[in-house]
Design brief:
This protein has one domain: Molybdopterin cofactor biosynthesis C (MoaC) domain (Alpha-Beta Plaits, 2-Layer Sandwich). Helix content is about 30%, strand content about 30%. The protein is built from 3 helices and 7 strands; from the N terminus they run βαββαββαββ. The strands form 2 sheets. It has a 5-stranded antiparallel beta sheet, with helices on one face. Strands 2-3 form a two-stranded antiparallel sheet. A hairpin with a 2-residue loop joins strand 2 and strand 3. Helix 2 crosses helix 3. It is elongated.
Length: about 160
């Protein structure tokens, strides 16, 4: 059975994992999030080229996602600060939804899945913030890790 890694030996005090003994490898992670719009809101946004009074929704959300990736250690208490080597945040339209794809990489001793999840989440929250004037019936869903590699356990979500 797996054990929690962010608690001490007694299991009652949080701790940052010591990764000093781990081998430096290329670590990569890919996460997604989805923002679901009511049909009328999606149509309004598409007709406006995803421009609102706050600006270009998809562009601002993309930048916010990158900022979220970089700010992960300040937001998630037990995350290590990492020297990131790559970050790609892409937003695509699928029907009435905006799907956020966040890929992060580094050369390090610990993975970047929290950075990828944080980037996707912050981008989704930014889409919500920029579009909430049109409706509060927006839904952020399916924030999830799609894959990670380079550590002790690789992961690939089955999307079929």
């Amino acid at each position: 059975m797996n054990t929690l890694s962010h608690v001490d030996g007694r299991g009652d005090n949080p701790k940052m994992v010591d990764v000093g003994h781990k081998k430096v490898t290329t670590r990569e992670a890919y996460a997604q999030a989805r923002v679901v719009f009511p049909a009328v809101v999606a149509k309004t946004l598409q007709q406006a080229g995803f421009m609102t009074k706050k600006g270009a929704v998809l562009t601002v959300a993309q930048i916010a996602g990158v900022m979220g990736v970089k700010a992960t250690p300040q937001l998630i208490p037990l995350c290590h600060s990492l020297n990131l080597s790559g970050c790609d945040v892409e937003l695509t339209l699928e029907g009435n939804d905006v799907v956020i794809h966040c890929r992060v990489s580094c050369e390090g001793r610990t993975g970047v899945e929290m950075e990828a999840l944080t980037g996707a989440s912050v981008a989704a929250l930014t889409v919500y913030d920029m579009c909430k004037a049109l409706s509060h019936d927006l839904v952020i869903q399916d924030v999830r890790l799609i894959s990670k590699s380079g550590g002790k356990r690789d992961f690939q979500r089955d999307l079929t």
